[in-house]
Amino acid sequence: MLVAVTATVRVVDGVDRVRLNAAYVRALEGAGLVPLIVPPLADTDAAVRILDAVSGLVLSGGEDVDPSLYGDTPHPALGAVNCSRDVTELALLAAARERNLPTLAICRGIQVVNVGLGGTLVQDLPSQQSDVAEHELDGQRATRVHGVSVEPSSRLARILGSESLDVNSIHHQAVDRLGDAMRVSARADDGVIEGVESDDPDWWMVGVQWHPEELTATPEPWDRRLFDAFADACRAGVSSASTSLPSALGASASPASGGLEKEAHR
Ligand code: MN
Predict the structure, then answer these.
(1) Count of alpha carbons within 13 angstroms of residue 220, beta-carbon side
(2) With 0-12 CB in 10 A as exposed, 13-18 as middle and 19+ as buried, what is 26?
(3) Catalytic: which of 89, 107, 146, 214?
């Protein structure tokens, strides 16, 4: 089961390189998924065509979203932005929404989803909100540093099997005003939004502000459950597509027989 995972391009050792933390690859493979890594592309139509080949979309962590995309001016504490990545990911999100393609949004990803659906962001938690805990603990990527309360009726609560958990925290921004057709599924103990999800039962979209991909090897099961639920949604999307299209059943059988034919011809 192929899933698209967004990546960035940045200069490392003087060379522009495509980058994605390997933790995403390991976590997705652990859930039985095969990641297809999608960097920012100049041609957003081409980027969207990649979604034809996959069963799900993962929006990964990274740079701050350009505040002009949500009608704000840059705060002095705004971090690095990557406009081509913003454009590519917003196009992928819109297409995933249109197709009801299962979407897992992580860290920057939850922020991209919120902006794409019309919401806004807090550009820098420490300088813009009082009484917030430290949320940018980059040196403790695989450590559960703060608590999160999950909305009892949310999809996230069903996935995690819990209404409270502890998570890592590697962000200085957060969801501010919520976008359309989505709801808050989780908050940190200080009130910072740590989870959102789609209001539409037909669109599996789960966003988290923490980094579950860094926590799948911990004793606690929550983060493995999140990736497993995403994998289940990807499989369910494929099976519902093939049951609604009888011809797809025939099409799905043909690659195997085609393969045998090729073998025979050799
Ligand atoms: Mn946090």
Answers:
(1) 18
(2) middle
(3) 107
C-alpha–C-alpha distance, residues 233 and 255, integer Å: 24
- Is residue 102 packed enough to be buried (19+ CB in 10 Å), middle (13-18) or exposed (0-12)? buried
Q: Are 123 and 72 in contact (CB under 8 A)?
A: yes
Query: What is the CATH classification number for the domain harbouring 253?
Result: 3.40.50.880
Decide if 56 contacts 233 (C-beta within 8 A): yes
Is 107 one of the annotated active-site residues of the chain? yes
Helix or strand or coil: residue 81? strand
pLDDT single digits (tens) 219-261: 999 999 999 999 999 999 876 665 544 444 444 444 444 334 3
Q: Is 83 known to be catalytic?
A: no
Domain count within the chain? 1
Active site residue 213: yes
Are the C-beta atoms of 120 and 70 separated by less than 8 Å? yes
Q: Could you list which residues have their CB under 5 Å from ion ligand 1?
A: 135, 169
pTM exceeds 0.85? yes
Tell me: the pLDDT tens digits for 52-67?
999 999 999 999 999 9
Identify the active-site residue in 146, 172, 211, 234. Answer: 211
Write the DSSP assignment of 241-257 as a string of letters.
HHHH-HHHHHHHHHHHH
Burial tier of 169 (Cβ tally within 10 Å: 0-12, 13-18, 19+): buried
Q: Tell me the pLDDT tens digit for each residue of 64-89.
A: 999 999 999 999 999 999 999 999 99
| Cβ count within 10 A of residue 236 | 13
Domain that holds residue 154: 2-265
Measure 136 CA to ligand 1 centroid, in angstroms. Answer: 7
